[in-house]
């Protein structure tokens, strides 16, 4: 370099400083590349995370149940006559730490679930020489136990648990309460031993029904009356039950003490109507097993409405009373559950949910959910049928007493049994319903409520809202777009387009608010006018067009081509004014002055103020700009030489449009409609504010609906994290997500195709 | 040239006219809607005249009516009769007026429908007064007397106006005291309460960490006693102010003849609309407008201002744009400049594009589940164990709302920025690279500055969308009434964990969840108008920037 030219400035590009500088630069370049790469990919991943997270919340719904043995030990024995003591009743407290064993010798043993250590023993107050013969529980809500004695009397007890925290550790102290006194109540005056018993307690009444060893049936009611001063007086009513013939397997008392079921060992049930407590009537005698099979076990489901029947043929079924057209009640078989045919040994209804566990003669455990008609699990856990069993109140622990005198404790994982494909998307026969129905009713005030998680009414509502919105939006948006793109003067187009696109930016909460507080009452008051408007508007527009064609040239030419839309503005305003102005007149002339009552009384169409019509108009308004702008682009992008060619061949502008331009642009128009549909389906605020949000399934335009999106917005803040309800709302969100995503992707692919096609042209 | 109907139809002209009509309808709908909001929203602040009339119904009932006429509708007579009201008229339609009678403490309701036919002679007496109050809504009636400490100091007969100046003077004094009380209660006591709560948390923290040594505790207790002393002083001040505020009261006669006494401490403002001339009214109008924009809401959000909602919206949107801009831009730059163009990038592009069309409530659900319960819950466990079981970040709040909306709007920014990057001619990039610049330098010095208007467009569109979204916010952080602003003088100044108020949610809440929808409606229109104006301005500026950008690169392409 140096020899080349002495005058040239000498630049050394290889000084250490410059080398360093270059290194720094390339390092910076590398850092930028890596940084942007990581940043970019992580943003994209973050976006995909939505999809993954929604799935992550939903997947537990699909999981079936599982059990895991946690302990096995000798059944804790009684202190007296341990060899004669049979287990009559087994239960655990809320935390499943302490269990209770009630024995035939009248001793209650409380023991630790984990290792069988005896926590406490309580000898019940029963006369010497008498034995406990039978035990019945009033159900998990009141948890009253009735113990039938061999001398025809009944002792009522409750097991109670006090929780204290000495040294910050949970300590559970069990005890036995005698809510009706320590002295047994007399059921059989004759003193014959009781073989079967049932008990039900309400705030004002205690009902005990029993069968004695000499085959007599008793029904005894104790009425509690509380005086103003707080004194409680108890009145005893003894009633006779209709005579029984067969030997009784179980007695059960239905909800509100209105029905008594006596199930015989031969598989029949006597349904006794005790709604009039003084004269119990036999409602029906039914066969509830198939092929003359005997009863394996029969229990009442949580809430007491349903009978769960398992027979010796291994058939499992659910029955409850259904009212027919004549207002008569009859016991109906509602559904049956899958099982392999091994005779049923023991059934354990869950305490908080509509479901039960079943153990058969071979020691197989099956877990069922009744509403969802779903088998959560079938697994062999024992060698033979159990002697007794208990499920903890939270349904997370199962205790089974084996025939060899050992106790087996199992942990149960069964989080979301209420959900199945059927319960979400099919008609389900819910308890106390007259027929299977689609119902969404996620919560109620009491614990015995059967949650109704059918997504059908919501999906239906979503589609109904979208349908009416599309009916409003599609014609307006597409026609408007055709005119704007093809006929309108460019100067006007530049002004009109932003105005309509401004609609898209309007917050939907504003539209919803106007729909609910302005449009809904307005439509209600001017219904005839609005329908008159629908008819008069097109007639008025075409009529004006024809009149315009008849005008002298001077006037016609005063308005240049492509500005005719402006002429329509006064026409539309005038027609609207006329139509709405004659609304009241029409109402008086045609509908006796009141459309609402005319619709309801004469046509039998219910009318809500916030209805699908309101939603259709408001959401149509929100969807118009979306469809308009994409359609307009598609039509405008059709190469001009195509239409020029057509026009040159003598076609009218309209013919050119329908035969040449629209077919070319049709995929674009289609994708516009799809995207508009996607928007209508997911819109939340408008539907939330402009409808009554009742989840009904009715196409009636004058009734409201509840959509998936609105339902999520209303219910998710109140649902417990991780609960079935919460996850189902996530499922609803996922359905919305997938629906719009698929629709939009399809539309996008079509649009890209179209673009390519024009590129070729 | 006359055309026959047949030819005219054949040419397809009716269809063209119908299409033109569709455009006209759309335009009328947009403009009509904006006009409706504007008229109803802005009209509310204008002081309406108070009418006075006697009403005599056919069934013999008659009463005295004082109030503002709000609305008039024509109803078929049939409907009136069906509702069980006798009416004697030959007309088929009758007019029905909605009168705002105020005085909720006297009548139980603020509004009353009255049939035109029953009204006898409407008067507008100049001496009627209107009193805006902190509770029970407006009062309309005649001023009778002024009292100070239960002693009457000035009297006038109904219909006179001699004590009005005195009344105004005393009201001004009471309002001033009220402002002082507000200042102390809201800010100074609020600050002390906040500091005491922080001390409690500190103590709990020490306990958890096992550092609750006597020295540490003593230190905390010392601080606490200082605060308590300050609190005592303020309490004393407040007590004095309350006594002063309750000194005066006025007696007035309501429309049913009942005389009621109202303490001046309950009064917001008094005026005599029937006496005001146009200038007075304009002054009153601008005062009300300012109150609306700058004050806290009163009476379950149905009166007063919406300042906290404006503030909350602005805060949330600002935070969101701070989050969304870098991430959106980086993702776009990666997709356009660094990623290998192919099937995958095309798929990603479509996916990102479509995410903009995913219902916003889905983002809300995601934000609630992932951000709040999952992330927030874990943050609480790690960093804020002292506040548990009360959640700090494990509950809806400002930060999660901004983050959720950032996620919602990031596709908008990505798409806009990518479009901007795609518009930059290759030649510019190649020129830079040929001069020896590295890729990063080209990007930083040449490409990004040229694409900046596109990014701006994206961010503005994102802000416009975020400002109008309500559905996801309902799940992740807005409340109907926030006790304090998310930005204040208490350390750490920005309270990201706090819930906030939002204009859009305010519309929903006041319009639909309010106990007194009728009274709140004008305010909702005004709020809607404000929101629409803000969003329209944002959109128009985005459009303007986009157009400017296009012009700029047109010259480059040549």
Description of the molecule:
The complex is a heterodimer of chains A (about 750) and B (about 550). Chain A is an alpha+beta fold and about 750 residues long. By secondary structure, chain B is an alpha+beta fold. In chain B, the strands form three sheets. In chain B, strands 6, 7, 8, 9, 10 and 11 form a six-stranded antiparallel sheet that branches. A five-stranded antiparallel sheet of chain B has the order 4-3-2-1-5. Classes of the chains: A alpha+beta (about 750), B alpha+beta (about 550).
Helix-strand layout with pairing:
The complex is a heterodimer of chains A (761) and B (558).
Chain A lengths: L15 H47 L3 E9 L12 E6 L5 E6 L3 E6 L5 E6 L8 E6 L7 E5 L3 E12 L6 E7 L7 E2 L7 E8 L3 E8 L4 E10 L5 E9 L7 E6 L5 E6 L3 E6 L7 E7 L7 E6 L6 E5 L4 E8 L5 E9 L6 E6 L5 E6 L3 E6 L4 E7 L7 E4 L5 E5 L4 E8 L7 H5 L14 E2 L10 E2 L2 H32 L2 H16 L2 H18 L1 H23 L3 H6 L5 H18 L1 H9 L3 H9 L8 H25 L3 H9 L4 H30 L2 H6 L17 H8 L8 H37 L1
Antiparallel strand pairs in A: 1-29, 2-3, 3-4, 4-5, 6-7, 7-8, 8-9, 8-10, 11-12, 12-13, 13-14, 15-16, 16-17, 17-18, 19-20, 20-21, 21-22, 23-24, 24-25, 25-26, 27-28, 28-29, 30-31
Chain B lengths: L4 H6 L2 H31 L7 E6 L5 E15 H6 L10 E8 L3 H4 L3 E5 L3 E5 L5 E5 L5 E10 L2 E5 L8 H46 L4 H32 L2 E6 L5 E5 L3 E5 L6 H17 L2 E2 L4 E2 L2 H32 L4 H13 L4 H24 L14 H26 L2 H9 L4 H30 L2 H6 L26 H11 L3 H41 L1
Antiparallel strand pairs in B: 1-2, 1-5, 2-3, 3-4, 6-7, 6-11, 7-8, 7-9, 9-10, 12-13
Helix pairs in contact in B: 2-16, 5-6, 8-11, 8-13, 9-11, 10-11, 11-13, 12-13, 13-16, 15-16
List the secondary-structure elements of chain B in sequence, H or E.
HHEEHEHEEEEEHHEEEHEEHHHHHHHHH
CATH topology of the largest domain in chain B: MetI-like fold
The structure class of chain B reads: alpha+beta
The dominant shape of chain A is elongated
When the domains of chain B are counted, the total is 3
- The CATH superfamily name of the domain at 456-760 in chain A is MetI-like
Query: According to CATH, what is the topology of the domain at 456-760 in chain A?
Result: MetI-like fold
Q: What structural class results from the helix and strand content of chain A?
A: alpha+beta
| Subunit arrangement of the protein | heterodimer
| Most extensive interface | A-B, 114 and 108 residues
Helix content range of the residues of chain A, please?
A: 25-40%
Tally of alpha and pi helices of chain B: 16
* Overall CATH class of the largest domain in chain B: Mainly Alpha
Query: What's the CATH first level of the domain at 456-760 in chain A?
Result: Mainly Alpha
| Overall shape of chain B | flat
Subcellular location (chain A): Cell membrane
Membrane topology (chain A): Multi-pass membrane protein
Pfam families (chain A): BPD_transp_1
Domain ABC transmembrane type-1 (chain A): 459-747
């Amino acid at each position: 370099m140096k020899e080349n030219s002495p005058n040239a400035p000498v630049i050394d590009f290889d000084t250490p400083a410059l080398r360093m500088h270059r290194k720094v630069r390339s390092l910076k370049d590398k850092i930028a590349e890596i940084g942007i790469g990581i940043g970019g990919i992580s943003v994209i991943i973050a976006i995909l995370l939505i999809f993954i997270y929604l799935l992550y919340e939903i997947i537990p719904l699909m999981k079936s149940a599982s059990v895991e043995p946690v302990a096995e030990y000798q059944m804790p024995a009684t202190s007296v006559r341990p060899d004669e003591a049979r287990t009559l009743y087994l239960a655990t407290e809320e935390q499943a730490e302490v269990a209770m064993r009630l024995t035939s010798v009248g001793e209650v043993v409380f023991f630790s679930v984990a290792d069988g250590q005896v926590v406490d023993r309580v000898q019940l107050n029963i006369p010497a020489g008498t034995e406990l013969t039978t035990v019945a529980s009033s159900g998990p809500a009141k948890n009253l136990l009735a113990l039938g004695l061999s001398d025809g009397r009944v002792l009522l007890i409750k097991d109670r648990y006090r929780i204290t925290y000495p040294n910050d550790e949970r300590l559970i102290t069990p005890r036995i309460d005698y809510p009706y006194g320590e002295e047994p109540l007399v059921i059989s005056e004759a003193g014959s031993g009781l073989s079967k018993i049932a008990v039900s307690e309400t705030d004002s009444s205690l009902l005990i029904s029993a069968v004695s060893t000499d085959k007599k049936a008793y029904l005894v009611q104790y009425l509690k009356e509380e005086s103003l001063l707080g004194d409680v007086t108890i009145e005893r009513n003894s009633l006779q039950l209709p005579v029984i013939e067969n030997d009784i397997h179980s007695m059960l008392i239905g909800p509100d003490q209105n029905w008594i079921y006596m199930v015989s060992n031969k598989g029949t049930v006597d349904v006794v109507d005790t709604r009039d407590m003084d004269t119990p009537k036999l409602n029906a005698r039914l066969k509830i097993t198939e092929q003359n099979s005997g009863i394996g076990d029969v229990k009442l489901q949580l809430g007491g409405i349903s009978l769960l029947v398992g027979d010796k043929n291994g058939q499992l079924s659910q029955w409850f009373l259904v009212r027919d057209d004549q207002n008569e009640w009859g016991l109906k078989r509602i559904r049956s559950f899958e099982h392999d045919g091994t005779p049923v040994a023991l059934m354990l209804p869950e305490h908080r949910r509509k479901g039960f566990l079943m153990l058969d003669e071979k020691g197989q455990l099956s877990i069922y959910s009744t509403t969802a008609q779903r088998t959560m699990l079938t697994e062999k856990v024992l060698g033979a049928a159990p002697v007794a069993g208990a499920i903890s109140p939270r349904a997370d622990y199962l205790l089974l007493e084996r025939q060899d005198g050992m106790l087996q404790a199992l942990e149960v994982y069964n989080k979301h049994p209420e959900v199945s494909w059927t319960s979400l998307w099919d008609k389900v026969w819910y308890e106390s319903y007259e027929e299977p129905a689609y119902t969404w009713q996620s919560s109620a005030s009491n614990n015995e409520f059967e949650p109704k998680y059918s997504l059908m009414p919501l999906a239906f509502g979503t589609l109904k809202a979208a349908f009416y919105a599309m009916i409003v939006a599609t014609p307006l948006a597409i026609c408007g777009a055709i005119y704007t793109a093809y006929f309108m003067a460019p100067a006007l187009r530049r002004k009109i387009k932003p105005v309509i696109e401004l609609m898209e930016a309007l917050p939907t909460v504003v539209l919803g608010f106007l729909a609910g507080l302005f449009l809904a009452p307005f439509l209600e008051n001017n219904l005839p006018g609005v329908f008159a408007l629908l008819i008069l508007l097109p007639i008025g527009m075409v009529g004006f067009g024809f009149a315009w064609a008849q005008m002298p040239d001077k006037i016609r030419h005063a308005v240049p081509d492509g500005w005719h839309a402006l002429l329509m503005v006064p026409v539309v305003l005038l027609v609207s004014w006329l139509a709405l102005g004659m609304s009241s007149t029409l109402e008086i002339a045609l509908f006796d002055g009141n459309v609402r009552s005319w619709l309801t009384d004469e046509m039998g169409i219910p009318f809500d103020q916030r209805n699908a019509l309101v939603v259709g108009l408001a959401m149509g308004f929100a969807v118009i700009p979306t469809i308009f702008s994409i359609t307009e682009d598609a039509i405008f992008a059709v190469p001009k030489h195509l239409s020029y060619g057509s026009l040159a061949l003598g076609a009218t502008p309209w013919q050119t449009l329908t035969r040449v331009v629209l077919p070319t642009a049709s995929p674009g128009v289609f994708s516009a409609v799809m995207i508009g549909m996607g928007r209508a389906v997911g819109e939340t605020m408008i539907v939330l504010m402009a409808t009554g949000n009742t989840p009904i399934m009715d196409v009636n335009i004058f009734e409201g609906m509840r959509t998936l999106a609105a339902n999520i917005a209303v219910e998710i803040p109140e649902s417990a994290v991780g609960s079935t309800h919460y996850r189902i709302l996530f499922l609803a969100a996922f359905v919305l997500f997938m629906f719009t995503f698929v629709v939009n992707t399809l539309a996008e692919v079509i649009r890209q195709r179209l673009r390519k096609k024009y590129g070729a042209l | 040239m006359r055309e026959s109907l047949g030819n005219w139809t054949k040419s397809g002209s009716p269809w063209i006219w119908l299409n033109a009509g569709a455009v006209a309808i759309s335009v009328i709908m947009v403009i009509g809607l904006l006009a409706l909001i504007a008229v109803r929203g802005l009209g509310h602040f204008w002081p309406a005249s108070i009418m006075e009339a006697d009403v005599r119904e056919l069934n013999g009932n008659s009463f005295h009516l004082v109030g503002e006429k709000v609305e008039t509708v024509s109803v078929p007579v049939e409907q009136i009769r069906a509702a069980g009201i006798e009416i004697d008229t030959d007309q088929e339609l009758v007019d029905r007026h909605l009168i705002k009678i105020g005085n909720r403490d006297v009548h139980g309701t603020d509004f009353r429908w009255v049939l035109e036919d029953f009204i006898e002679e409407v008067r507008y007496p100049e001496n009627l007064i209107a009193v805006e109050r902190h509770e029970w809504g407006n009062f309309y009636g005649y001023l009778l007397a002024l009292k100070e400490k239960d002693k009457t100091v000035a009297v006038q007969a109904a219909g006179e106006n001699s004590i009005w100046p005195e009344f105004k003077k005393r009201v001004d004094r009471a309002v001033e005291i009220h402002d002082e009380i507000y200042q102390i209660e809201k800010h100074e006591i609020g600050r002390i309460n906040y500091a005491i709560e922080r001390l409690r948390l500190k103590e709990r923290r020490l306990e958890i960490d096992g550092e609750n040594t006597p020295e540490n505790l003593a230190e905390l207790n010392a601080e606490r006693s200082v605060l308590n002393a300050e609190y005592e002083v303020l309490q004393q001040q407040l007590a004095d102010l309350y006594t002063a505020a309750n000194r005066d009261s006025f007696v007035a006669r309501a429309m049913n003849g009942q005389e009621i006494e109202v303490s001046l401490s309950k009064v917001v403002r008094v005026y005599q609309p029937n006496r005001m001339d146009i200038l007075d009214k304009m002054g009153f109008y601008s005062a009300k407008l300012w109150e609306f924009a700058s004050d806290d809401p009163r009476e379950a959000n149905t009166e007063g201002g919406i300042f906290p909602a404006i503030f909350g919206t602005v805060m949330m949107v600002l935070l969101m744009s701070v989050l969304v801009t870098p991430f959106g831009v980086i993702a776009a730059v990666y997709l356009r400049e660094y990623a290998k163009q192919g099937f995958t990038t095309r798929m990603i592009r479509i996916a990102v594009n479509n995410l903009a069309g995913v219902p916003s409530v889905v983002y809300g659900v995601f934000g609630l589940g992932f951000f709040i319960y999952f992330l927030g819950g874990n943050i609480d466990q790690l960093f804020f164990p002292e506040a548990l079981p009360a959640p700090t970040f494990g509950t809806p709040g400002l930060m999660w709302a901004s983050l959720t909306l950032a996620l919602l709007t990031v596709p908008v920014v990505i798409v806009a920025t990518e479009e901007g990057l795609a518009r930059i001619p290759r030649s510019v990039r190649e020129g830079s690279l040929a001069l020896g610049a590295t890729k990063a330098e080209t990007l930083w010095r040449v490409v990004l500055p040229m694409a900046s208007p596109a990014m701006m467009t994206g961010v503005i569109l994102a802000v416009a969308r975020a400002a109008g979204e309500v559905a996801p916010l309902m799940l992740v952080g807005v409340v109907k009434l926030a006790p304090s602003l998310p930005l204040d003088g208490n350390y750490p100044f920005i309270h990201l964990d706090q819930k906030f108020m939002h204009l859009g949610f305010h519309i929903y809440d006041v319009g639909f969840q309010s106990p007194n929808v009728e009274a709140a409606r004008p305010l909702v229109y005004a709020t809607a108008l404000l929101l629409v104006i803000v969003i329209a301005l944002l959109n128009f500026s985005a459009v303007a920037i986009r157009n400017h950008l296009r012009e700029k690169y047109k010259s480059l392409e040549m």
